[in-house]
Design brief:
By secondary structure, this protein is an alpha+beta fold. Pfam families: DUF2007 (PF09413). InterPro entries: DUF2007, N-reg_PII-like_a/b. Keywords: Membrane, Transmembrane, Transmembrane helix. This is DUF2007 domain-containing protein.
Length: 129
């Protein structure tokens, strides 16, 4: 049976991800950072974050090491509440309902940016007259 690669943590600052990677590797756990370089190029619009990934069989040991070094894990209920809070607005926009959460967020931010650009543009027209 082949072991799957799973995400154990996600960071939005490269240094934080690199510190955890170094910690786990120093304890003999093979892991790697996914999206490390794209996150640095896209910074500060780092939507997906830098993912620390390792073999599924190493997760229990890695979690023990992380806990011993002060890393906290959100409870499942907290994660569900956060996802529901972020995606709650999508129920009110029909074309977003069919999209995955990440795309809903991206489309929402684009819509907000366009709205703000229009407000600024029309505000400048009014103030210049």
């Amino acid at each position: 049976m082949e072991d799957k690669i799973v995400e154990i943590a996600r960071f939005y600052e490269p240094e934080e991800a690199q510190i955890l990677e170094s910690l786990l590797k120093s304890e003999g756990i093979k892991c790697y950072l996914r999206n490390e370089y794209t996150s640095q190029v896209m910074y500060p619009a780092n939507m997906g974050g830098i993912r620390v990934e390792l073999l599924e069989s190493e997760v229990p040991r890695a979690m023990e090491i992380m806990e011993a070094n002060g890393y906290e894990f959100p409870k499942e209920d907290e994660e569900v509440e956060q996802i529901q809070a972020v995606s709650g607005w999508a129920r009110h926009i029909p074309f977003l309902r069919r999209l995955p959460l990440e795309r809903q967020i991206i489309v929402f931010f684009i819509l907000v940016a366009v709205f703000l650009a229009l407000v600024i543009y029309f505000g400048s027209l009014v103030s210049s007259n």
